[in-house]
Predict the 3D structure of the following.
Amino acid sequence: MTHIEAANSVLNPFSVSLYLANLRAHLNASGLRLRLVLVCGVLLTQPIASHAQEIQEETDSGAQTTDQTSQTKADARLRQLAYIQGVLDGKLTERRNIGNQIAEANEQDRADLRRMANSLTAEITQLRSTLETIATGGVDRKLFEVEPEAEKKDWREDVSLIAQPVLDSLKEITEKPRRIKELNELIELKTLEAQTSEAALQSLSGNQSTDENSALSRSIESLTSKWTKRREDAQNAITVAQIQLKGLEGDQPISKTIYEALISFAKGRGLTIVLAILAAWLVWISVRVLLNAYRRTLVDKKRADSRTRYRVAKYSVQALTFSLILIAVFIVFYERHDVLLLGLLILLIVGFVLNAKQLLPRYLKEARLLLNLGAMREGERVILNGIPFRVNSINMYTTFTNPELSGMLRIPLAELTKTTSRPSVEESWFPSSKGDVVLTAEGELLEVLSQNPDTVELRKRGGELLTLPTTQFYGKSMTNLTRLGTFGVSSTFGVDYNHQHIAATVIPDTLQKQVQAAFESSNLSNALVEVRVELAEAGSSSINYWIFVTMKSDVAFSYFRVLRVIQSACIHTCTTQGWSIPFPHMSLVQKPVAANDAVTMMDQAPHDGAASA
């Protein structure tokens, strides 16, 4: 008895009423309140019993619907199996008939009949496979198929055994979509064949001869039978393909199929990948901790040899870490028995080893640079594009800096295998710094606004901006008026020979005092360092003096003004002292004519003039 039936029996309204009546007889003295309670109990029992009856009816209806659905599916499967069996019986009968014809046919007809028999055999095999798949509910028959072992020929087949699981897994993953595509293409092909056969039969029906016993009538009848069979074969193939296609697509929705695939992946290969990643992470963390401990305890960053040892240890540990990670992942794949991932890992390792044969020489050069043991080393000076740089850090992308240039260069290590550096001492890295004032060989005064590895921006006297490539600027011949704190301005001034008696004593002292006084009276007085005046030479028309003024670099942009102040002070001194300033002049002196020169002049006179005289 079910729970619902028990509830019905307990909550039967007549039984409850009888029980309440007996109780009321014994408790008649309890009063009106007890009577009301009993009446309400009788009224409430009726809905409870009705609801229990509805539950029972719904349960029976659901079970009946499930049974009907299962019976419908079973009937549909039986109809499919019966249809395929009918087609299979027809193919077997046809093959037996062809076998009987082979025994009686000649040699040429036998070849054609054998080809037809082979084609029928392939179709029969396919139909039997389809019948078995549908009848067994689509179980995997490959588990019971034993493939004959092929004879091993050479080592290539042994190598192919490693890649075979990978290929098989990929084929298994794509088998269902490929099979559905093949069936759809087969349906399209057989549909076209059926349409062509129908068109041929319609054409043959119009060629019927009136004489049924004639050779033409027999030929038309034979062709009609042939094309009718082709149409029936095409239609049968379409039906069988549709049955197979329906079995592959399945009855469950795509969302459920995707969900089951994800669950299967998470429990199988997905878990294997997660475990492999976890094992690789544990190996990496362990080695990283050991390397950091070594760096903190044994490496002195101030010593170059210690840095080199650390770099050797670092890259050696990285190579060891890579090997240990491969081993850990391999062990995980092996223990999880995942042939696909294991085969992919082996193929990856084999490909890496094969490529290493060609790339090893280049990698050895790069490895020497990475270990700071090559021709270029960290902290040394190297020339790149004609400009000096310091090797800041050697890595896969090596960085170069110049203390005088803003920014840096980042160059791939592969391009630096032929680069050579040298130890750097206290030397200049660039002819100028930001804010310096330089005097070019062309006599142009420029202030450096900014400079980087690509360009240098300069400001001219009038405020114009001049931009030059850094390489071109570095190759220019120039004088930096700012870098050493002072700069000097040299000038020349001449006095007439009439003052020769005071040329070596009075004039130099007077010019020095007047030039110094001229600077002290100008706004350049705070920048004046020294004024020197010395007799330079006795020129062709004047006595020349060398005047040299040393100024602080704060007024470097007034370089040409210093020259003007020197010349102005010298001219003013000559005016106040009454000294004459010479100027270049030319003297003409008549040379006396000698006797030989007169005879020569007589000989060179024109003859016609002499004759006329």
